[in-house]
Structure formats: C-alpha cells, structure tokens
Design goal:
The structure holds two protein chains of two kinds. Chain A is α+β, with helices and mostly antiparallel strands. Chain A has helices at residues 2-7, 16-37, 41-44, 100-104, 108-113, 128-135, 153-165, 167-170, 176-180, 210-221, 242-250, 273-279, 295-305; strands at residues 79-80, 92-93, 188-193, 200-203, 254-259, 265-267, 282-287. Chain A is globular and about 40 Å long. In chain A, 49% of the residues are buried. In chain B, the strands form two sheets. Chain B has a 21-stranded mixed β-sheet, with helices on one face. In chain B, strands 5-7 form a two-stranded parallel sheet. Among the domains of chain B are: 1-40, Monooxygenase (Up-down Bundle), CATH 1.20.1280.50; 489-574, no CATH class. The chains are: A alpha+beta, B alpha/beta. At the A-B interface, strand 2 and helix 7 of A face loops of B. Chain A: Homodimers and heterodimers.
C-alpha cells in the first residue's frame, strides 16, 4: 500500500521527500507495532468487514463492525505541508467532504483500530486543523485534493466509466500508456446508510482494496452508530473472540451493498476489487436484518470460516 | 412624468428583454416600477435563498418563466455536501398555489425530486419548457410525469444531472398526441432507453430541433432517428461504435447527408475512433462542436474532423488533441468564439497533452475568441502576455494548471505578471479563474484593472489578506467571489462589510477565516446569511472553549431579503 502511495505523488507535484518519508515512517510504525505485539492484529481486529474479500490481510472481515474509536478522525480535514514554497505559512489541504485522505495514507486502516490498548479513543481535537497537520501527512493513495482539478463530478465519472469500458481501443492510440494504466479519473459514488441523516460521496479510485474502502466507510459513518453498540471501548483491544463475533452478527451489524450497472443490489466483496469499482454506482450500508437474502450468506460464510 | 398611457410604455418595455435592463427600468420611478412589474414575464434569480417565492410572486404576478440557481458554484467540485439545500419543491408549491401561468422553468444546481416534477407537471396547463442543469434528487419516474402530463411540452433539456435511472418507460409516457417537442436532451441518463418509443416520438415531432441521446442509443437507432428528423439542428450522438462496413453505417451516412440544418454536434459518449468521417459532409455547416466526452477519439481523428469545420464558433474538446491539434484549430476555425479544453487524463501521469503553446496558437489564430476554459499542465508568463496582446476581447478567461501552485515552468516565477497582463488588456473581462503559483501581486493587478469583473475563482493563491483586499476594494462590479485554500482571513473578510451587499455571494473554504470573524460579520450585516458548513465536526465547534479562534472550514455568505433559511441541514450553521 505504501509503495503505491509514493508513486502517486507526481500528480500533486509537491516535493516528494518529506511526504514520502512520512508515509514510509507511518507504515513502518504500523508494521513494527504489529510485529512487536507478536499478534496478528489484522486478523483479530474488529472492523468494517466485507464478505468474500480477496485481500490477503483480511481474515475476519466478513462482517461490519463500526468502530467508535475511529470517530474523531472520521473525515477530519487532511492537510499537506507545502514543501515547495517554504516562505508561506498556509497549508495545502484537502476538503473535508470525503475521508479519502485518511484512508489511503500510509497509516492505513489498521492503525486506526490497532491502538495497542494505549488510547481508547483518539484525542478529540480542540482545533481540528492543527491536529491533522501533525498526524495525517501522508497523502491519499492517489494524492488527490478534493474538488481539484475543478471539473464537474458528472464529467469525471463519465470519463471514468467510458475509459474503464474500452480497454481494447486504447492500444490503437498514442496515449495508450497514459490511459490503459492504473491511473484513471475519480469515480465518485454516493454512500448512504440506514438511519443516517445525510449521504456521503466517496471517490472509489482512491482505494485499492476492500480493506481500505471498509475502513473509510467505518470512519465516515461511525458517528452515526454511537449508541448502537453500547460500550465500544473493548473493540480492538480485547481482540476478537467467537462470542463477540456472534454477538455482532446477531446484533446491529451492517452489511455493505452496492448498486451495479444493471441497477441490481449486490453484496460488496464478491468480485475482485477492480471489477467492483468498474461496476459500482452507489453504496448502501444496510442493517443485515434489512438485507434479506444477503445477510444469510454473511452468516454462512462466517460459519464456514469459523 | 409619463407622457404616454401605460399601455404604450408597457409595449416599449416588451422590447427590453435583458434582466439587467429591466431591473434598471424598474428603478426609474414608481410608475415605471409598477408597469414593469406587471409586464415582466421572465425572472432570473441567481440565488434561490436571496428571496422567497411568495415575495417573488407578489412583485411579478404575471410570471411565465423562472430561472433559479441553488448551490454555490463549488458544489460542482464536491465541496458542498449533498444535503446543503437548494430544494425546488417549495418554489413549485408556491407557484402552483398562486396559479401563475408558468411556462418555463430553468434550474441549476438545485435538488429536484420526483414529487416536485409531478407537481410541476400537474399544476401548469401551459407548461412548455423544463431545463435542468447539474441538478439531482430525481429519477426517471419524475421525467415520466412530465412526459405524461405536460400537453404542450416543447423543451425537456437535461444537462449533466444526476438522475436515478429506473430503466422505466418514461419515453413511452409521452402521449401519442404530443407533437410539440422542440428540444429533447437526455444524454445524462445512464440506463437503457426504449428505442421504439424514442423513434416514434421523434417521428411525430416535426418541430424537433435539438436531440441529444444517451449512451444506450446505438448506431443503427441513430441512423433511423436522423432519417426521420432531417430538420435537426443540434444533435447529441449517443453510442457511436460502428463497423464501417455495416449496413447501419451506410444508412447513417445517407441520413447525415440529408441533415443540412445541422449546426451543432456533441456526445460520442462511447465512440470508436474511426467513426467521425461519416460526419465530414456536414462539418462545413457546424458552428458548435462538443467532443469533450469522447475519450476514445484521439488526435488524428479529431484533427481530420476539425479541418472540415471552418465555421466553428464553439469548440469543446479534450486535451488529447494536443498542441498540434490546437494549431490546426487556430488555422482552420477563424470564427471561433468559445473554446474549452478539458483534461483527458486527470491524474496527469506525465502526459503533457496541451501546454502554453496551444493557447498561444489559438490566441494568434482566432481573433474572435472571447471565452476560454483551458486545462493544461504548464504555463508561462510570456505565453500569457502574448495571449493578452493577441486577444484583448476576452469576456471569460479560465485557466487551470492541473498542478496547484505550479510556477512558470521556464522562469520558475509566479504567474502574477501573466495574469496581470490578461486583466490589463482585457477591459471587458467578466469572469476569471486563475491557477498556478500566485502571490498577492496578481490580486493587486486584478483590483487595479479588472473593472468589469463579476466572477472570480481563486484557489491555492495569494500570501496575505492584502490579496483579498485588493480584489474587494478594486473590483466594483464583483458579484461572485469564490476562494479555496488561500491564506485570507478575518481582516480581509471584515474590512468592508457593505461590499457584500453589492455582491451575490462569497465562498471561502480552507482559508484562514475564524468562527469569531464570521460571527462578527454576521452581527454587522443582518441582511447577510453567513453559513458555516461543518459536516464533520457536527457543530462541535460550539462545544469547546477555543471556538473563537477556530478556523472555519467552509463559509458561504450571500445577501438576502428573507433572512435565515429554514431548510438548512444540521451541519450548516447560519450565524
């Protein structure tokens, strides 16, 4: 994940070094933390899980568990330090409409949950801007600023879908390399959640896997589940045990579904990630009790893996 | 004061159509105010929250056409949360209650629901024209009610809206008796289209002048459609894959040749590269060409097409045309007035598709150019100075260098001098967007020279509050100022509160403005709505003691005669 973070810096054109270093540092920290504990946190942590995901790190990711501890950083403004222009004092920042910045950063989804039991929650920032300056400096995997370049999202999405549908034609043109590579424009899709007062929009292109996506959704929507899970303090610290799993499965857990190009509602996680982002038009986080016909598969998969 | 009976004055006023002029007329004297308001049929409202429908109708009871704009411009770039506002339903409800004879409704960046479309379709017997631009919140079911109930529908023009396509049969909801269509644009619909219903509709619409199809209309259907609408003036091609030898393609070529009235071409939403030659026979008539969605058509094919388009006045294209392609445009399209070059590769993977050279070539070759939107990878001051010299007639100049803060790539200097040259030379400049590395100096120039400037978009620019102050003090005609990620703060914001009464709106996001600054402003100016949009903190700003110094993420303020709006979502805090 961190390698791709480094590669994408060219877009913004910031001086790469400070941010790249930070990105590597962040991910190193994460790895060290994991290794030091001798536990495979990723296997045991409670998170927004998607069934059938291909991501190798994911083990118990079949269910959604929205982690309250990540709430304070959900969608908080990300800022880049502007390394080019030393003299100025302002910041090159993303807007706060999406959590893309947080998710794709080198800190990754793991670190938000894996806190070694040291901090029960992130410190609530008194001044959000300053807090973010110090921590989240590694840019999103695509190093994109919200709303930049200033192109209507309708146009961005339109370009994205037409390019993804026509891989064959690209080879005929001199710009094949630029177009057929992994770099494609943004793909904003709406994300709705049952009971949430408003929808969000996220750019699917900034995520590389279901893992990243689930973490982003978790952060974005965890605020709405305050009170749903009772005490969240235990999540991620106790590690996962089977009884907790089943509690969540039977409790108010959620499933993530998406609307595909044929306007059918599908369970997220069945198809490879690349295929998913090509066909996903919308996301919806539903209570598994509502997702009749989908939820049972979740349960089956859990049982079969356990 | 009046030497003529009112009817005569009213008749004279009928010839005055521009909103600005009519507004001016109404200020002359009470008598003229009264005559003007009863005779005004078209009203333009640039900010739907500046006024409410009841007051509008009290003043203009004979309203027939209404244009409403909702969300601020930066909503186009995802900077405004979805539920911010701009709901059209209250307007339609009020208009319906008043029984005004509404015939035309044009909405931009508003939230439209199926319910409002249904109400619209049932409430106005003479409703003729619906134009929705960048709106959202409705589905094809709403379109079905429009189709079914508006007996005299002339225009259904959907531009870049987000519409939930239920793959329903909305096209077949047009009754067989509907023969009045002049404009049908559904290019933004993503789903399947009932081709049979579409063909029959086109066949029974002899007045159809503008037809813009969506992706789901394939080539053979296009051929048939053009064959039964040879009078078409404005065509948006849908899916344009073809096998050059197929019978459909032959039929299409034959149909195209008959469309001698065709002046405007767009679409090619899915297009194979070899296809454009079918249109070569009518290119010499084209005045408008929009290939900005045709991602698969590249360089050489575009150039071949453009070489035939000598009368082109408006060109929207992707940067895949390249500088060389723009040179061809410059040498061919001598009538060009408006050019937009969009980026084809948004991540800028080293693909220097168009540079300052293309822009200079265009400015040198197209003397009538007055509007430009140009996305590029790099720019120089020298190029901008040359452009200013070549084209002093710019009304709209929007330059977007994809990489924020990029300096002149030859001298590494900020681009202040280049943009300064533009504002100095272009005395009629009304709209400006700049980019690249810019200091306070560029704003000094803008304040000094841009006397006609009405709309300015600033991003990642400036050093201190002085920058913003130059603009606020200098640009007397400023109406819409939008700023993001620039170091302007409370000092600039509060320097001249009365300025905002002369402006429609001010947007500032990711700047240095603080909550206490905004509060002070709101106190000083009760006729302003000062909105703080803070979707992620959920008004936590109130809870902690440092609130005064806390920077505001997004602020949007606008003058209004109706005070605080009631429909703001919880994350919008109106001071």
């Amino acid at each position: 994940m961190s390698e791709s973070v480094a590669a994408e810096h060219d877009y913004i054109g910031l001086s790469e070094f400070p941010t790249m270093e930070e990105a590597t540092t962040m991910s190193d920290k994460t790895k060290t933390r994991d290794n030091n504990n001798g536990l495979n946190f990723k296997a045991t942590e409670l998170r927004l899980g998607l069934p059938g995901s291909e991501s190798p790190e994911r083990v118990d990711s079949r269910f959604l568990a929205l982690n309250k501890s990540s709430c304070p950083v959900s969608g908080a403004k990300r800022v880049f330090s502007d390394a080019i222009n030393e003299s100025n004092k302002w910041i090159f920042s993303t807007g706060s409409t999406t959590a893309t910045g947080d998710v794709g950063s080198g800190s990754g989804p793991g670190s938000s949950v894996v806190k070694d039991g040291k901090s029960t929650t992130f410190p609530k920032p008194a001044v959000p801007v300053k807090e973010k300056k110090s921590s989240a400096t590694a840019p999103a995997s695509k190093a994109q600023v919200v709303g930049w370049p200033p192109i209507r999202s309708f146009r961005k999405n339109s370009m994205a879908s037409s390019q993804s549908q026509k891989p064959g034609n690209n080879s005929e043109t001199e710009e094949a390399e630029a177009k057929s590579g992994p770099e494609q424009p943004c793909l904003y899709v709406k994300v709705s959640m049952e009971g949430a007062p408003y929808l969000r929009k996220i750019d699917l292109k900034t995520y590389k896997s279901y893992l990243e996506l689930s973490s982003a959704l978790e952060k974005m929507f965890s605020c709405f589940t305050i009170g749903q899970f009772g005490s969240h303090g235990g999540c991620g610290r106790d590690g996962l045990n089977e009884s907790r799993l089943t509690d969540l499965l039977r409790g108010s857990e959620y499933v993530v579904t998406y609307e595909d190009k044929d306007s059918d509602w599908m369970l997220v996680g069945d198809v490879p990630w690349e295929m998913f982002i090509c066909s996903c038009k919308k996301l919806r986080i539903m209570k598994s009790s509502e997702a009749i016909g989908l939820a049972p598969r979740v349960m089956e998969k859990c049982r079969s893996r356990n | 004061m009046n030497y003529f009976p009112d009817e005569v004055i009213e008749h004279v006023f009928d010839f005055v159509t521009s909103h600005k002029d009519r507004n001016a007329i109404s200020l002359v004297c009470k008598s003229w105010y009264k005559i003007e308001r009863f005779s005004r049929q078209k009203v333009f409202i640039g900010n739907c929250y500046a006024i409410n429908p009841e007051r509008l109708l009290r003043r203009f009871p004979c309203l027939k056409s209404l244009t409403l704009k909702g969300k601020p411009h930066f909503a186009d770039f995802n900077l405004v949360p979805h539920e911010w506002g701009g709901f059209v339903l209250p307007w339609i409800e009020a208009l319906a209650r008043s029984r005004v004879g509404l015939e035309e409704l044009r909405l931009k960046r508003m939230v439209v629901t199926d319910e409002s479309l249904e109400l619209l379709s049932r409430s106005f017997v003479n409703f003729k024209s619906l134009v929705l631009v960048s709106c959202e919140g409705f589905t094809t079911d709403g379109l079905a009610s429009i189709a079914a109930n508006c007996r005299h529908l002339r225009d259904l023009d959907l531009q870049e809206n987000e519409i939930d396509d239920h793959r329903g049969q909305w096209l077949s909801c047009f009754p067989d008796t509907c023969t009045t269509l002049v404009t049908l644009n559904f290019a933004c619909l993503e789903g399947e289209t009932n081709l049979v219903a579409l063909e029959r509709l086109v066949a029974r619409s002899p007045n159809l002048k503008s037809l813009k199809l969506n992706r789901a209309v394939p080539l053979d259907a296009l051929a048939r459609l053009m064959a039964c609408a040879p009078q078409i003036v404005d065509l948006g091609v849908g899916s344009y894959e073809n096998d050059p030898d197929s019978e459909s393609y032959m039929k299409l070529k034959a149909a195209i040749k008959k469309c001698t009235s065709l002046r405007s071409l767009s679409g090619f939403l899915e297009a194979a590269p070899h296809c454009l030659s079918a249109f070569h026979p009518i290119c010499h008539n084209l005045t408008s060409l929009n290939l900005s969605y045709a991602a698969e058509i590249h360089g050489s094919h575009l150039i071949k097409l453009i070489q035939h388009c000598k009368k082109l006045q408006r060109l929207w294209i992707l940067d895949s045309i390249g500088d060389k392609g723009l040179e061809v445009v410059a040498s061919t399209c001598k009538e060009l007035q408006e050019l937009r070059v969009f980026p084809s590769d948004l991540l800028g993977g080293g693909n220097t598709a168009v540079t300052e050279e293309g822009l200079v070539a265009i400015s040198a070759g197209c003397p009538k150019l007055h509007s430009i939107l140009y996305f590029c990878q790099q720019m120089t001051n020298a190029a901008l100075v040359t452009v200013a010299k070549n084209c002093p007639n710019f009304i709209r100049f929007r330059l977007c260098i994809l990489e924020p803060n990029k300096p002149d790539h030859v001298t590494s200097q900020p681009l202040d001098e280049g943009f300064g040259a533009i504002v100095k030379a272009c005395k009629s400049l009304r709209r400006l967007s700049h980019s690249g590395l810019l200091t306070d100096q560029v704003f000094l120039y803008i304040g000094m020279y841009a006397n006609q400037l009405e709309m300015l978009s600033i991003a990642f620019a400036g050093d201190t509050d002085k920058g913003m102050l130059y603009v606020l003090n200098g640009c007397k005609k400023m109406k819409k100022l939008e700023i993001r990620d620039s170091p302007f703060g409370d000092t600039a914001l509060l320097a001249d509160v009365s300025k905002y009464e002369t402006m429609r709106s001010l947007w500032m996001s990711s700047c240095e403005v603080t909550l206490s600054g905004c509060k002070r402003l709101a106190q000083k100016a009760p006729w302003l709505n000062v909105e703080i949009i803070n979707e992620n903190d959920n008004n936590r700003m109130e809870e902690n003691g440092h609130e005064g110094r806390q920077k505001v993420d997004k602020m949007y303020l606008y003058r209004t005669v109706v005070g605080t709006r009631m429909d703001a979502p919880p994350f919008v805090w109106i001071l």
